[in-house]
Amino acid sequence: MKKLFLTIAACAGFAAWGADLTDVELAVRNLNRAMDIADASWETSIKGSDSNLYMADSYNLETGVASGPSDIWPLTAAVEAHCSILEALEAVKDVDATLYGNTWDLYRERLELLIDNLEYYRGSYRRPSYATANKEWKPYAVPRSNTRGGANVTGILNVYDDQMWLSRELIRAYRVTGNEDYRDLAAYLADYVIDGWDCWRDENGEEYGGITWGPGYNSKHACSNAPIIQPLVWLSEIYEGSGEEMEFYYRDGENAVKHESRERSELYLEFARKVYDWQLKHLFDRNTGVYWDMMGADNTIQVSRGYRQHVDCGGPTGTFFSYNTGTMIAGGAELYRVTGEERYRTEMSVSVKGAMNRFTRYIRKLTAYVFNTDETAMSGFNTWFNDVLLRALADAEEFCENSSATTGLKSTQTVLDYAFENHNRGNMLPIKLVDGWGNDNQTKAFHQFSFASEYAVLAKRLMKNQASDGVENVAADREAVAADGMVYTLGGVALGHMADLEGRLPQGVYVTGGKKMVVR
Questions:
Q1: Model pTM?
Q2: What is the pLDDT of residue 402?
Q3: Where are the domains of the chain?
Protein backbone atom coordinates (compact mmCIF):
# COMPACT_ATOMS: atom_id res chain seq x y z
CA MET A 1 0.00 0.00 0.00
CA LYS A 2 2.91 2.34 0.67
CA LYS A 3 5.02 3.91 -2.05
CA LEU A 4 8.65 4.53 -1.24
CA PHE A 5 10.32 7.86 -1.80
CA LEU A 6 12.48 7.07 -4.84
CA THR A 7 14.41 3.93 -3.80
CA ILE A 8 15.54 5.12 -0.40
CA ALA A 9 13.94 2.45 1.77
CA ALA A 10 15.54 -0.25 -0.34
CA CYS A 11 19.07 1.10 0.03
CA ALA A 12 21.51 -1.63 0.98
CA GLY A 13 24.32 -1.36 3.50
CA PHE A 14 24.70 0.73 6.61
CA ALA A 15 25.07 4.50 6.53
CA ALA A 16 25.38 6.37 9.82
CA TRP A 17 22.92 9.23 10.24
CA GLY A 18 21.59 8.76 6.72
CA ALA A 19 24.87 9.53 4.96
CA ASP A 20 24.36 10.62 1.35
CA LEU A 21 20.68 11.42 2.01
CA THR A 22 19.21 14.87 2.38
CA ASP A 23 17.23 15.56 5.54
CA VAL A 24 14.00 15.29 3.56
CA GLU A 25 15.00 11.97 2.03
CA LEU A 26 16.04 10.62 5.42
CA ALA A 27 12.77 11.80 6.96
CA VAL A 28 10.76 9.91 4.34
CA ARG A 29 12.89 6.79 4.80
CA ASN A 30 12.38 7.01 8.55
CA LEU A 31 8.64 7.25 8.06
CA ASN A 32 8.57 4.26 5.75
CA ARG A 33 10.47 2.22 8.31
CA ALA A 34 8.14 3.37 11.07
CA MET A 35 5.19 2.14 9.03
CA ASP A 36 6.92 -1.15 8.18
CA ILE A 37 7.52 -1.91 11.87
CA ALA A 38 4.02 -0.79 12.89
CA ASP A 39 2.46 -2.90 10.12
CA ALA A 40 4.39 -5.98 11.22
CA SER A 41 3.19 -5.61 14.79
CA TRP A 42 -0.37 -4.94 13.67
CA GLU A 43 -0.35 -8.16 11.65
CA THR A 44 1.23 -10.33 14.36
CA SER A 45 -0.11 -8.88 17.61
CA ILE A 46 -3.41 -7.02 17.04
CA LYS A 47 -6.14 -9.61 17.39
CA GLY A 48 -9.94 -9.91 17.34
CA SER A 49 -12.59 -8.03 15.38
CA ASP A 50 -12.95 -4.28 14.84
CA SER A 51 -15.45 -4.03 17.70
CA ASN A 52 -13.53 -6.37 20.01
CA LEU A 53 -9.88 -5.65 19.33
CA TYR A 54 -6.96 -6.38 21.66
CA MET A 55 -3.19 -6.41 21.55
CA ALA A 56 -1.31 -9.61 22.35
CA ASP A 57 1.18 -9.31 25.16
CA SER A 58 3.96 -11.24 23.41
CA TYR A 59 4.81 -12.84 20.05
CA ASN A 60 7.10 -15.80 19.36
CA LEU A 61 8.99 -15.34 16.11
CA GLU A 62 9.77 -19.06 15.83
CA THR A 63 6.27 -20.47 16.36
CA GLY A 64 4.22 -17.48 15.22
CA VAL A 65 2.14 -17.72 18.41
CA ALA A 66 0.82 -14.54 20.04
CA SER A 67 -0.07 -14.83 23.72
CA GLY A 68 -2.67 -13.13 25.85
CA PRO A 69 -4.22 -9.65 25.83
CA SER A 70 -1.85 -6.97 27.07
CA ASP A 71 -2.56 -4.59 29.92
CA ILE A 72 -3.59 -1.05 29.04
CA TRP A 73 -0.10 0.42 29.45
CA PRO A 74 1.51 -1.53 26.58
CA LEU A 75 -1.51 -0.79 24.41
CA THR A 76 -0.83 2.93 24.74
CA ALA A 77 2.41 2.30 22.81
CA ALA A 78 0.32 1.22 19.82
CA VAL A 79 -1.76 4.40 20.11
CA GLU A 80 1.44 6.42 20.43
CA ALA A 81 3.00 4.88 17.33
CA HIS A 82 -0.04 5.66 15.20
CA CYS A 83 -0.14 9.25 16.46
CA SER A 84 3.57 9.59 15.69
CA ILE A 85 3.14 8.18 12.19
CA LEU A 86 0.22 10.50 11.45
CA GLU A 87 2.19 13.50 12.72
CA ALA A 88 5.13 12.50 10.53
CA LEU A 89 2.82 12.06 7.53
CA GLU A 90 1.57 15.60 8.08
CA ALA A 91 5.18 16.78 8.20
CA VAL A 92 6.16 15.17 4.87
CA LYS A 93 2.95 15.59 2.89
CA ASP A 94 4.30 18.57 0.94
CA VAL A 95 7.39 16.63 -0.17
CA ASP A 96 5.76 13.23 -0.76
CA ALA A 97 2.08 13.69 -1.47
CA THR A 98 1.80 10.14 -2.80
CA LEU A 99 2.99 8.57 0.43
CA TYR A 100 0.61 10.79 2.38
CA GLY A 101 -2.34 10.07 0.12
CA ASN A 102 -1.78 6.30 0.12
CA THR A 103 -1.41 5.85 3.87
CA TRP A 104 -3.12 8.61 5.85
CA ASP A 105 -6.55 6.99 6.00
CA LEU A 106 -5.12 3.59 6.94
CA TYR A 107 -3.32 4.85 10.04
CA ARG A 108 -6.15 7.19 11.02
CA GLU A 109 -8.61 4.29 10.86
CA ARG A 110 -6.30 2.07 12.88
CA LEU A 111 -5.91 4.82 15.48
CA GLU A 112 -9.69 5.13 15.74
CA LEU A 113 -10.00 1.35 16.25
CA LEU A 114 -7.37 1.34 18.98
CA ILE A 115 -8.98 4.22 20.87
CA ASP A 116 -12.48 2.79 20.48
CA ASN A 117 -11.39 -0.54 21.94
CA LEU A 118 -9.84 1.08 24.98
CA GLU A 119 -13.37 0.83 26.37
CA TYR A 120 -12.69 -2.80 27.32
CA TYR A 121 -10.34 -1.42 29.98
CA ARG A 122 -12.74 1.19 31.33
CA GLY A 123 -14.97 0.94 34.38
CA SER A 124 -16.65 3.08 37.01
CA TYR A 125 -16.34 3.38 40.78
CA ARG A 126 -16.68 5.85 43.62
CA ARG A 127 -13.41 7.01 45.12
CA PRO A 128 -12.56 8.88 48.30
CA SER A 129 -9.82 11.39 47.56
CA TYR A 130 -8.02 14.11 49.51
CA ALA A 131 -10.69 16.77 48.90
CA THR A 132 -13.59 14.86 47.33
CA ALA A 133 -15.65 12.14 49.01
CA ASN A 134 -17.36 9.29 47.18
CA LYS A 135 -17.20 10.94 43.77
CA GLU A 136 -17.86 8.64 40.79
CA TRP A 137 -15.15 8.33 38.14
CA LYS A 138 -14.66 6.27 34.99
CA PRO A 139 -10.90 5.64 34.59
CA TYR A 140 -9.07 2.83 32.84
CA ALA A 141 -8.09 -0.42 34.54
CA VAL A 142 -4.74 -2.17 34.26
CA PRO A 143 -6.16 -5.48 32.88
CA ARG A 144 -8.64 -5.87 30.04
CA SER A 145 -12.20 -6.96 30.75
CA ASN A 146 -14.58 -8.95 28.55
CA THR A 147 -17.11 -6.15 28.20
CA ARG A 148 -17.00 -2.51 27.24
CA GLY A 149 -17.07 -0.28 30.32
CA GLY A 150 -17.14 -3.33 32.57
CA ALA A 151 -13.57 -3.34 33.88
CA ASN A 152 -12.88 -3.56 37.60
CA VAL A 153 -11.16 -0.27 38.43
CA THR A 154 -11.19 -0.46 42.22
CA GLY A 155 -8.19 -0.48 44.53
CA ILE A 156 -4.89 -1.20 42.81
CA LEU A 157 -6.61 -2.14 39.54
CA ASN A 158 -6.28 1.38 38.19
CA VAL A 159 -3.17 3.53 38.40
CA TYR A 160 -2.68 7.20 37.68
CA ASP A 161 0.21 6.83 35.26
CA ASP A 162 -1.94 4.82 32.84
CA GLN A 163 -4.43 7.70 32.74
CA MET A 164 -1.55 10.12 32.11
CA TRP A 165 -0.08 8.20 29.18
CA LEU A 166 -3.56 7.92 27.68
CA SER A 167 -4.31 11.61 28.18
CA ARG A 168 -1.11 12.49 26.33
CA GLU A 169 -1.90 10.29 23.35
CA LEU A 170 -5.54 11.38 23.20
CA ILE A 171 -4.41 14.99 22.92
CA ARG A 172 -2.08 14.05 20.09
CA ALA A 173 -4.90 12.10 18.44
CA TYR A 174 -7.17 15.17 18.76
CA ARG A 175 -4.53 17.43 17.25
CA VAL A 176 -3.91 15.22 14.26
CA THR A 177 -7.52 14.18 13.54
CA GLY A 178 -9.58 17.05 14.94
CA ASN A 179 -11.87 14.61 16.80
CA GLU A 180 -13.11 16.61 19.79
CA ASP A 181 -14.15 13.44 21.64
CA TYR A 182 -10.46 12.69 22.09
CA ARG A 183 -9.83 16.15 23.54
CA ASP A 184 -12.74 15.82 25.97
CA LEU A 185 -11.61 12.38 27.15
CA ALA A 186 -8.03 13.63 27.59
CA ALA A 187 -9.32 16.49 29.75
CA TYR A 188 -11.50 14.12 31.79
CA LEU A 189 -8.51 11.90 32.56
CA ALA A 190 -6.43 14.96 33.47
CA ASP A 191 -9.19 16.02 35.88
CA TYR A 192 -9.14 12.55 37.44
CA VAL A 193 -5.40 12.83 37.96
CA ILE A 194 -5.61 16.33 39.44
CA ASP A 195 -8.21 15.03 41.91
CA GLY A 196 -5.53 12.57 43.07
CA TRP A 197 -3.13 15.35 44.11
CA ASP A 198 -2.31 15.23 47.83
CA CYS A 199 -3.64 18.64 48.86
CA TRP A 200 -3.37 18.10 52.62
CA ARG A 201 -1.17 20.76 54.25
CA ASP A 202 1.69 20.45 56.70
CA GLU A 203 2.29 22.44 59.88
CA ASN A 204 3.57 25.35 57.77
CA GLY A 205 0.43 25.42 55.66
CA GLU A 206 2.21 24.02 52.61
CA GLU A 207 0.66 21.28 50.47
CA TYR A 208 2.33 17.90 50.81
CA GLY A 209 1.70 17.49 47.11
CA GLY A 210 2.46 14.63 44.79
CA ILE A 211 0.24 11.96 43.26
CA THR A 212 0.33 8.38 44.49
CA TRP A 213 0.91 5.55 42.04
CA GLY A 214 -2.82 4.90 42.13
CA PRO A 215 -5.85 5.32 44.39
CA GLY A 216 -4.93 1.99 46.00
CA TYR A 217 -1.33 2.99 46.80
CA ASN A 218 0.42 5.34 49.21
CA SER A 219 3.79 5.43 47.43
CA LYS A 220 4.41 8.45 45.21
CA HIS A 221 6.25 7.63 42.00
CA ALA A 222 8.05 9.64 39.36
CA CYS A 223 5.91 7.82 36.80
CA SER A 224 2.68 8.92 38.48
CA ASN A 225 3.61 12.59 38.49
CA ALA A 226 5.83 13.87 35.68
CA PRO A 227 3.96 12.20 32.75
CA ILE A 228 1.01 14.54 33.28
CA ILE A 229 3.04 17.76 32.96
CA GLN A 230 3.22 17.80 29.17
CA PRO A 231 -0.47 16.93 28.66
CA LEU A 232 -1.48 19.62 31.15
CA VAL A 233 0.50 22.27 29.26
CA TRP A 234 -1.08 21.13 25.99
CA LEU A 235 -4.58 21.23 27.50
CA SER A 236 -3.89 24.69 28.89
CA GLU A 237 -3.13 25.86 25.36
CA ILE A 238 -6.12 24.05 23.87
CA TYR A 239 -8.54 25.73 26.32
CA GLU A 240 -6.78 29.12 26.21
CA GLY A 241 -9.37 31.83 25.60
CA SER A 242 -12.32 29.43 25.77
CA GLY A 243 -13.42 30.60 29.21
CA GLU A 244 -14.46 27.01 29.97
CA GLU A 245 -14.55 26.30 33.70
CA MET A 246 -14.31 23.17 35.85
CA GLU A 247 -15.15 22.34 39.44
CA PHE A 248 -12.05 22.30 41.64
CA TYR A 249 -11.80 20.94 45.18
CA TYR A 250 -8.83 21.55 47.48
CA ARG A 251 -7.82 22.18 51.09
CA ASP A 252 -7.03 25.61 52.53
CA GLY A 253 -4.34 26.52 55.06
CA GLU A 254 -6.46 25.06 57.86
CA ASN A 255 -7.05 21.83 55.91
CA ALA A 256 -10.71 22.66 55.39
CA VAL A 257 -12.18 21.41 52.10
CA LYS A 258 -12.89 24.23 49.69
CA HIS A 259 -14.56 24.31 46.30
CA GLU A 260 -14.56 26.81 43.46
CA SER A 261 -14.97 27.07 39.70
CA ARG A 262 -11.72 27.60 37.82
CA GLU A 263 -10.90 28.23 34.19
CA ARG A 264 -9.53 25.03 32.72
CA SER A 265 -6.64 26.69 30.94
CA GLU A 266 -5.43 28.46 34.07
CA LEU A 267 -5.80 25.45 36.37
CA TYR A 268 -4.07 23.05 33.98
CA LEU A 269 -1.00 25.28 33.70
CA GLU A 270 -0.97 25.81 37.46
CA PHE A 271 -0.91 22.07 38.06
CA ALA A 272 1.74 21.51 35.39
CA ARG A 273 3.96 23.83 37.40
CA LYS A 274 3.03 22.26 40.75
CA VAL A 275 3.69 18.70 39.65
CA TYR A 276 6.98 19.71 38.05
CA ASP A 277 8.12 21.52 41.19
CA TRP A 278 7.07 18.62 43.46
CA GLN A 279 9.09 16.07 41.50
CA LEU A 280 12.08 18.38 41.22
CA LYS A 281 12.06 18.90 44.98
CA HIS A 282 11.50 15.30 46.08
CA LEU A 283 12.93 12.99 43.40
CA PHE A 284 15.73 14.86 41.60
CA ASP A 285 19.23 13.51 42.23
CA ARG A 286 21.66 16.40 41.93
CA ASN A 287 24.68 14.12 41.74
CA THR A 288 23.54 12.53 38.46
CA GLY A 289 21.02 15.01 37.00
CA VAL A 290 18.36 12.28 36.76
CA TYR A 291 15.33 11.25 38.83
CA TRP A 292 14.69 8.61 41.45
CA ASP A 293 11.86 6.15 40.87
CA MET A 294 9.66 6.78 43.90
CA MET A 295 9.02 7.70 47.52
CA GLY A 296 7.87 4.55 49.28
CA ALA A 297 5.22 3.96 51.93
CA ASP A 298 3.14 1.07 53.16
CA ASN A 299 -0.14 0.49 51.38
CA THR A 300 -2.48 1.00 54.30
CA ILE A 301 -4.85 3.55 52.81
CA GLN A 302 -6.24 5.82 55.51
CA VAL A 303 -9.73 7.24 55.03
CA SER A 304 -11.55 9.38 57.60
CA ARG A 305 -15.00 10.94 57.25
CA GLY A 306 -15.04 9.94 53.61
CA TYR A 307 -11.75 11.61 52.68
CA ARG A 308 -8.39 10.10 51.99
CA GLN A 309 -5.72 11.09 54.52
CA HIS A 310 -2.12 12.08 53.92
CA VAL A 311 0.47 9.35 54.56
CA ASP A 312 4.18 10.16 54.82
CA CYS A 313 6.25 8.51 52.10
CA GLY A 314 9.80 8.96 53.33
CA GLY A 315 12.68 9.87 51.02
CA PRO A 316 13.52 8.99 47.42
CA THR A 317 14.38 5.40 46.61
CA GLY A 318 14.32 2.76 43.88
CA THR A 319 16.08 2.66 40.52
CA PHE A 320 16.93 5.35 38.00
CA PHE A 321 14.80 4.66 34.91
CA SER A 322 15.22 6.58 31.68
CA TYR A 323 11.54 7.43 31.29
CA ASN A 324 11.30 9.16 34.66
CA THR A 325 13.94 11.63 33.57
CA GLY A 326 12.45 11.82 30.08
CA THR A 327 9.05 12.98 31.32
CA MET A 328 10.65 15.77 33.36
CA ILE A 329 12.74 16.86 30.38
CA ALA A 330 9.60 16.96 28.21
CA GLY A 331 7.66 18.78 30.92
CA GLY A 332 10.45 21.31 31.36
CA ALA A 333 10.62 21.90 27.61
CA GLU A 334 6.88 22.59 27.46
CA LEU A 335 6.94 24.89 30.49
CA TYR A 336 9.86 26.84 29.07
CA ARG A 337 8.15 27.09 25.70
CA VAL A 338 4.95 28.58 27.12
CA THR A 339 6.38 30.67 29.98
CA GLY A 340 9.87 31.63 28.82
CA GLU A 341 11.13 31.14 32.38
CA GLU A 342 14.84 30.44 32.13
CA ARG A 343 14.97 28.02 35.06
CA TYR A 344 13.05 25.40 33.08
CA ARG A 345 15.60 25.52 30.27
CA THR A 346 18.51 25.28 32.70
CA GLU A 347 17.02 22.33 34.63
CA MET A 348 16.03 20.58 31.42
CA SER A 349 19.53 20.93 29.99
CA VAL A 350 21.09 19.48 33.15
CA SER A 351 18.82 16.43 32.95
CA VAL A 352 19.43 15.91 29.22
CA LYS A 353 23.15 15.73 29.89
CA GLY A 354 22.58 13.54 32.96
CA ALA A 355 20.33 11.17 31.02
CA MET A 356 22.89 10.70 28.26
CA ASN A 357 25.55 9.92 30.87
CA ARG A 358 23.37 7.56 32.90
CA PHE A 359 21.26 5.70 30.36
CA THR A 360 23.54 5.20 27.35
CA ARG A 361 26.80 3.55 26.42
CA TYR A 362 29.14 4.45 23.58
CA ILE A 363 29.47 2.04 20.64
CA ARG A 364 32.81 2.65 19.00
CA LYS A 365 32.07 0.83 15.73
CA LEU A 366 29.03 3.04 15.16
CA THR A 367 30.47 6.20 16.74
CA ALA A 368 27.11 6.49 18.47
CA TYR A 369 25.45 6.05 21.84
CA VAL A 370 22.90 3.30 22.47
CA PHE A 371 20.33 3.26 25.26
CA ASN A 372 20.79 0.63 27.96
CA THR A 373 18.23 -2.15 27.75
CA ASP A 374 17.11 -5.43 29.35
CA GLU A 375 18.61 -8.90 29.13
CA THR A 376 15.62 -10.31 27.22
CA ALA A 377 12.47 -8.92 25.67
CA MET A 378 10.36 -10.54 28.39
CA SER A 379 12.41 -9.35 31.37
CA GLY A 380 11.74 -5.61 31.44
CA PHE A 381 10.40 -2.43 29.91
CA ASN A 382 13.50 -0.39 29.10
CA THR A 383 12.78 -0.36 25.37
CA TRP A 384 9.65 1.72 25.95
CA PHE A 385 11.29 3.70 28.78
CA ASN A 386 13.96 4.72 26.28
CA ASP A 387 11.29 5.68 23.75
CA VAL A 388 9.92 8.16 26.32
CA LEU A 389 13.40 9.61 26.78
CA LEU A 390 13.98 9.80 23.02
CA ARG A 391 10.81 11.76 22.36
CA ALA A 392 11.76 14.08 25.26
CA LEU A 393 15.12 14.76 23.63
CA ALA A 394 13.22 15.74 20.48
CA ASP A 395 11.03 18.11 22.51
CA ALA A 396 14.04 19.63 24.27
CA GLU A 397 16.58 19.88 21.47
CA GLU A 398 15.84 23.42 20.30
CA PHE A 399 15.95 24.76 23.86
CA CYS A 400 18.99 22.92 25.25
CA GLU A 401 22.08 24.76 26.47
CA ASN A 402 24.33 21.91 25.27
CA SER A 403 24.43 19.45 22.38
CA SER A 404 23.53 16.33 24.38
CA ALA A 405 19.97 16.14 23.01
CA THR A 406 21.21 16.32 19.43
CA THR A 407 23.81 13.66 20.18
CA GLY A 408 21.10 11.38 21.57
CA LEU A 409 18.82 11.90 18.58
CA LYS A 410 21.51 11.37 15.97
CA SER A 411 22.80 8.33 17.83
CA THR A 412 19.32 6.81 17.92
CA GLN A 413 19.02 7.34 14.18
CA THR A 414 22.33 5.54 13.65
CA VAL A 415 21.53 2.65 16.00
CA LEU A 416 17.99 2.11 14.68
CA ASP A 417 19.28 2.07 11.12
CA TYR A 418 21.99 -0.42 12.06
CA ALA A 419 19.41 -2.73 13.62
CA PHE A 420 16.96 -2.34 10.74
CA GLU A 421 19.61 -3.20 8.18
CA ASN A 422 21.37 -5.98 10.12
CA HIS A 423 18.89 -7.60 12.55
CA ASN A 424 15.53 -7.13 10.83
CA ARG A 425 13.23 -10.16 11.22
CA GLY A 426 9.97 -9.61 9.39
CA ASN A 427 10.28 -5.84 10.01
CA MET A 428 10.71 -6.40 13.74
CA LEU A 429 13.79 -5.39 15.71
CA PRO A 430 15.52 -6.92 18.74
CA ILE A 431 15.65 -4.94 21.97
CA LYS A 432 19.45 -5.22 21.73
CA LEU A 433 19.68 -3.06 18.65
CA VAL A 434 23.42 -3.44 18.19
CA ASP A 435 24.01 -7.03 19.36
CA GLY A 436 20.93 -8.54 17.72
CA TRP A 437 18.45 -11.26 18.72
CA GLY A 438 20.86 -13.83 20.14
CA ASN A 439 18.76 -16.68 21.56
CA ASP A 440 15.78 -14.40 22.19
CA ASN A 441 12.90 -15.50 19.94
CA GLN A 442 10.23 -13.57 21.83
CA THR A 443 9.21 -10.00 21.24
CA LYS A 444 6.50 -7.65 22.43
CA ALA A 445 4.36 -5.37 20.32
CA PHE A 446 5.00 -2.95 23.21
CA HIS A 447 8.62 -2.78 22.08
CA GLN A 448 8.00 -2.85 18.33
CA PHE A 449 5.51 0.02 18.44
CA SER A 450 8.11 1.93 20.46
CA PHE A 451 10.65 1.51 17.67
CA ALA A 452 8.02 2.57 15.12
CA SER A 453 7.27 5.69 17.13
CA GLU A 454 10.96 6.54 17.44
CA TYR A 455 11.46 6.35 13.68
CA ALA A 456 8.42 8.59 13.16
CA VAL A 457 9.63 11.08 15.79
CA LEU A 458 12.99 11.26 14.02
CA ALA A 459 11.20 11.85 10.71
CA LYS A 460 9.16 14.68 12.15
CA ARG A 461 12.27 16.16 13.78
CA LEU A 462 14.09 16.33 10.45
CA MET A 463 11.16 18.09 8.79
CA LYS A 464 10.84 20.46 11.75
CA ASN A 465 14.50 21.37 11.37
CA GLN A 466 13.80 22.12 7.72
CA ALA A 467 11.09 24.53 8.78
CA SER A 468 13.36 26.10 11.40
CA ASP A 469 16.05 26.55 8.76
CA GLY A 470 13.49 28.47 6.77
CA VAL A 471 12.99 30.89 9.63
CA GLU A 472 16.72 31.34 10.06
CA ASN A 473 17.13 32.06 6.35
CA VAL A 474 14.45 34.72 6.50
CA ALA A 475 15.83 36.05 9.75
CA ALA A 476 19.28 36.43 8.21
CA ASP A 477 18.00 39.55 6.44
CA ARG A 478 17.16 41.33 9.66
CA GLU A 479 16.21 44.63 8.09
CA ALA A 480 13.70 42.94 5.79
CA VAL A 481 12.20 40.96 8.66
CA ALA A 482 12.05 43.97 10.92
CA ALA A 483 10.33 45.96 8.21
CA ASP A 484 7.95 43.07 7.54
CA GLY A 485 7.19 42.78 11.27
CA MET A 486 6.31 39.08 11.08
CA VAL A 487 6.26 36.85 14.18
CA TYR A 488 7.14 33.15 13.88
CA THR A 489 6.99 30.17 16.20
CA LEU A 490 10.30 28.43 16.86
CA GLY A 491 9.09 25.75 14.46
CA GLY A 492 8.86 28.29 11.62
CA VAL A 493 5.11 28.90 11.47
CA ALA A 494 4.22 32.51 10.63
CA LEU A 495 1.69 33.83 13.15
CA GLY A 496 1.12 37.29 11.72
CA HIS A 497 2.40 40.86 12.03
CA MET A 498 3.61 42.16 15.37
CA ALA A 499 1.31 45.16 15.09
CA ASP A 500 -1.69 42.82 14.97
CA LEU A 501 -0.44 40.35 17.57
CA GLU A 502 0.96 42.64 20.25
CA GLY A 503 -0.75 41.99 23.58
CA ARG A 504 -2.42 38.84 22.24
CA LEU A 505 0.46 36.36 22.10
CA PRO A 506 0.35 33.61 24.75
CA GLN A 507 3.39 33.16 26.98
CA GLY A 508 6.21 31.55 25.07
CA VAL A 509 9.26 31.99 22.84
CA TYR A 510 8.96 33.39 19.31
CA VAL A 511 11.15 34.67 16.46
CA THR A 512 10.84 38.20 15.11
CA GLY A 513 13.31 40.60 13.59
CA GLY A 514 15.89 37.86 13.38
CA LYS A 515 15.91 37.38 17.15
CA LYS A 516 14.14 35.26 19.74
CA MET A 517 11.48 37.04 21.74
CA VAL A 518 10.13 35.85 25.09
CA VAL A 519 6.54 36.73 26.02
CA ARG A 520 5.85 36.39 29.75
A1: 0.89
A2: 86
A3: 477-520
